[in-house]
Specification:
Helix content: 40-55%
Strand content: 5-15%
Number of strands: 11
Structural class: alpha+beta
CATH topology of the largest domain: Butyryl-CoA Dehydrogenase, subunit A, domain 3
Shape: globular
Radius of gyration: 27 Å
Distance between the termini: 36 Å
Length: 673
């Protein structure tokens, strides 16, 4: 029986908005970095979601694996055409809205199981731009940007992922024909996991070991055609297909590919930094890490995504907590909104603060990445290691916290959070997938730790450190230990920095001790790896705390009420970060029992202050209902009506009695067991 959804706002959620101490529109403008950006985004979203072409006709959850992929391709191509038409009509020749919307919130709404063109825009095109020489960019970039060819990025293999040096795919140069010959020496050398590889793309950037006259020249990048541009059939020597069903991202069509004597022209090796001349002369790159520069840009994007997962999830869970009534705080009162329970606030509000902090950290990292890219173009490579180290640990921290955070938010919604219609299970599958792709998190933290060990060594020599590790120098100056604890924002930030610096020191000293006992540097690093990971994690968390403090203490010309609510968010983020890392803080900073009690009181007080503003804050994230895609989190707050309406759409409810009753169930029940 279909239901009619009420055309009114739930009174509980309406009351929450009326009680807010700040202007929601002002918050939204701040969060989206200006009124003009917010207005433009709203116009784009509104036009797309009022287009009947994009009406939700069938819930993707009820489609088969094959149909989910086909539907994702259909929606992706329709959306691409729509965005192109909008671009030409609204802003011809101006800033491009195409990739941003296709792989952003709009794309997520229409393709909840992943946009098939995601890696085309985030890795294939950027790699050509940043790794190709002028001739290659001129030839391939227009084809890729116009989607005349579609590509992906093929690095991970069946038996090797983050350990790139262990990749087995070979590219051997043949000077007689001026071609590279690609081979996968075994099944374990097959490229495994590239998004859209299975059946969507016809080209790939392939990461392979370069050999010239049997001499190894390390990892290089090759542009390889996989399928015929007209028939889409795999080319000779190319064994390509889909890797099968996964926890999520079923529309991405992750695939495998193996090569057997596949020849490509010499100019299909991307040669902006490393080159192979026609006679086979190899000219090495000025910095080996440049081959992985595209991965750094994707990690920046992943930190932004992690912020999005948390702000999406916290919007759903907070709105639901405002309309769900359960439990008695005072027996004389009616059932309370679960948002009133302090334990519920502790589940929701820290995830809101993390979502905001990750966005601020991602913005800083994005600006840093762009600056270093500009320096690379000028032949300066000094800050490559710093941005690589920061992007690695922030990717690890943000994905670890967002997957755990979304799961916390799902559990905070009780049984209804378990339904696919809540969108929290799918959101979790997206968040947890990010923990693995573009670098396994523990390995990334170890990469950051190597940079920190070098930084500590530099600091001990008195050398000037890069900006993101300058706090190590500050901590070394505190010869009498950490100043007295005083609960200020600055104190909490400095405490996290001081603790991170001391964790770096401990790891450095323990590794040095092991080397003195006869271990090789590699053995010593492996034996110290637990402490190295902990040091890198605290480094990233101190960076996020520092950035949040710097950005939220002074937000510029905004109202006092907005500044106050953002300072509450900042305080919650810092207090929660200190409490979560208290075991390490106590190792290096003397806190009394009273200090710890006061910190707990601060936590409870800031939760209490945020409580009246919680719904208004998540409203300020400004997610359209179609992007939230949740029966629990709609703007009108009519969760129960939407839950019931979603249940009616189950294919099992099309008929009152299923075939299986007559075929199996009834005979079983009559069988006199």
């Amino acid at each position: 029986m279909p239901t009619t959804l009420p055309n009114k706002i739930n009174p509980d959620i309406a009351k929450e908005r009326e009680a807010a101490s700040f202007n929601i529109e002002e918050f939204a403008c701040w969060f989206h970095e200006g009124a003009q950006k917010l207005k433009k985004q709203r116009e784009i979203v509104e036009e797309i979601f009022t287009d009947p072409e994009f009406d939700e006709k069938t819930a993707p959850d009820y489609l088969s694996y094959q149909d989910q992929y086909d539907e994702a391709i259909k929606r992706c191509t329709l959306l691409a055409k729509k965005l192109e038409e909008m671009q030409n009509r609204r802003n011809p020749g101006g800033s491009d809205i195409y990739p941003e919307q296709l792989i952003g919130g709009v794309g997520y709404a229409l393709m909840p199981y992943g946009a098939p063109f995601f890696l085309h825009f985030t890795m294939f095109i950027p790699t050509i731009e940043k790794q190709g020489n002028s001739e290659q960019v001129e030839k391939w970039l227009p084809l890729a940007k116009n989607c005349k060819i579609l590509g992906t990025y093929a690095q991970t293999e069946l038996s090797h992922g983050t350990f790139i040096r262990g990749i087995q795919t070979r590219a051997e140069y043949d000077p007689a024909t001026e071609e590279f010959i690609l081979n996968s020496p075994s099944k374990t050398a097959y490229k495994w996991w590239p998004g859209a590889m299975g059946h969507t793309v016809n080209y790939a950037i392939v990461v392979a070991q370069l050999y010239i006259k049997d001499k190894h020249h390390g990892i290089q990048l090759f542009l390889v055609q996989l399928r015929d541009e007209e028939t889409h059939m795999p080319l000779p020597g190319v064994d390509v297909g889909d890797i099968g069903n996964k926890l999520g991202l079923r529309g991405i069509n992750n695939g495998y590919v193996g090569f057997k004597n596949v020849r490509i022209p010499r100019m299909n090796m991307l040669m902006r930094f490393a080159q192979v001349d026609p006679d086979g002369t190899f000219i090495s790159s000025p910095a080996a890490v440049l081959s992985y520069w595209t991965m750094v840009s994707v990690r920046v994007l992943i930190v932004h995504q992690s912020s999005g997962f948390l702000t999406l999830g916290s919007t759903i869970a907070t709105r639901y907590a405002a309309v769900r009534r359960q439990g008695l705080i005072n027996p004389k009162d009616p059932e309370h909104q679960i948002l009133d329970h302090v334990t519920q606030q502790l589940k929701l509000f820290p995830e809101i603060s993390k979502g905001i902090a990750f966005k601020l950290g991602a913005n800083y990292l994005y600006e840093m990445y762009n600056q270093v890219t500009k320096e690379i173009n000028e032949g300066k490579f000094d800050r490559l290691a710093e941005v690589h180290a920061l992007s690695a640990c922030l990717k690890s921290i943000s994905t670890t916290d967002s997957s755990a955070g979304v799961e916390t938010l799902r559990l905070a919604c009780g049984g209804h959070g378990y339904t696919m219609a809540s969108n929290l299970p799918n959101l979790y599958s997206l968040a947890t997938a990010a923990s693995t792709y573009e670098g396994e998190n523990t390995v990334l933290l170890l990469q950051t730790a190597r940079f920190l060990m070098k930084s500590w060594s530099m600091a001990m020599k008195g050398d000037k450190l890069p900006p993101t590790v300058a706090y190590i120098e500050d901590s070394l100056r505190l010869t009498n230990g950490f100043p007295k604890w005083n609960y200020s924002f600055e104190c909490m930030v400095k405490a996290l920095q001081f603790t991170a610096a001391n964790k770096v020191c401990l790891a450095y000293n323990h590794m040095a001790e092991r080397k003195k006992r006869g271990m090789t540097p590699e053995e010593a690093a492996d034996s110290t790896s637990i402490e190295l990971v902990q040091a890198a994690d605290l480094h990233g968390r101190s960076f996020l705390a520092t950035t949040a403090w710097q950005k939220l203490v002074d937000i510029g010309p905004h109202s006092k009420s907005l500044k106050e609510v953002l300072l509450d968010v900042l305080e919650l983020y810092l207090v929660n970060a200190c409490l979560r890392n208290m075991a390490d803080i106590l190792r290096f900073i003397s806190l009394t029992e009273q200090d710890l009690k006061e910190l707990q009181t601060k936590l409870e007080q800031v939760l209490h202050r945020i409580r009246p503003n919680a719904v208004a804050i998540v409203d300020g994230f400004d997610y359209h209902d179609r992007i939230l895609n949740s029966v629990l989190g709609s703007y009108d707050g009519n969760a129960y009506e939407r839950i019931f309406d979603a249940a009616q759409k189950s294919p099992l409810n099309k008929v009152p009695v299923q075939k299986s009753f007559h075929t199996y169930l009834k005979p079983f029940m009559k069988s006199n067991m």
